[in-house]
From TrEMBL:
The lineage of its organism: Bacteria, Pseudomonadati, Pseudomonadota, Alphaproteobacteria, Rhodobacterales. Residues 30-105 form the ACT domain. PROSITE patterns: ACT. This is Acetolactate synthase small subunit. GO terms for cellular component: cytosol. Belongs to the acetolactate synthase small subunit family. Its EC number is 2.2.1.6.
Length: 186
């Protein structure tokens, strides 16, 4: 009997090779998790991430249904496709979790973040900060003779770009809400 020959470029399939092909490439995913609005739920979700060494890049939580006592947790995390699948599966097993949606793979979504920037300065730096704020469509929400507080809404990349431009002009404080996201369409 002749040995089995495999054509060049073909793959061998075996009953012992049950692992799906996952990439080692790190991917950023936005997860929307619907949970009961009760004490300790957020701690359990965060504990899942901390206990397994997963990183949370952004986290927002708010009640979405007062009568149904439901909250929405939006988590931005990074990991390999295998790690992301593990995170989703483990989140789904937490008892007060009703639904886990991966907005990154479910289709088009809208993501926004709100940030407040305190920029201190005088003279030309003040004028330049106002000019850049106008370009980025940032609102001045507070002004003194020594500083401005700008409010900016948009994708995280827009917030990052504005912060980078404000640093040399006197950015002294920055507060960010984290990502809020919804899937597009029906």
């Amino acid at each position: 009997m002749s040995p089995l020959k495999i054509k060049k470029g073909a793959t061998s399939h075996s009953a012992y090779n049950l692992r799906p092909n996952f990439s080692d490439v790190q991917e950023k995913h936005t997860l929307a998790v619907i949970v009961d609005n009760e004490a300790g739920v957020l701690a359990r979700v965060i504990g899942l991430f901390a206990g397994r060494g997963y990183n949370i890049e952004s986290l927002t939580v708010a009640e979405i249904d007062h009568s149904g006592k439901l909250s929405r947790i939006t988590i931005v995390t990074t990991g390999t496709p295998q790690v992301i699948e593990q995170i989703k599966a483990q989140l789904g097993r937490i008892v007060p979790v009703h639904q886990v949606n991966d907005l990154t793979v479910d289709g088009p979504s809208v993501e926004r973040e709100l940030a407040l920037f305190k920029v201190e300065g005088s003279g030309d730096k003040r004028v330049e900060a106002l000019r850049l704020a106008d370009i980025f469509r940032a609102n001045v929400v507070d002004s003194t003779l020594e500083s401005f507080v700008f409010e900016l809404t948009g994708p995280s990349e827009k917030i990052d770009a504005f912060a980078d431009l404000m640093r040399p002009l006197g950015l002294s404080e920055l507060a960010r809400t984290g990502v809020a996201a919804l899937s597009r369409g029906a």
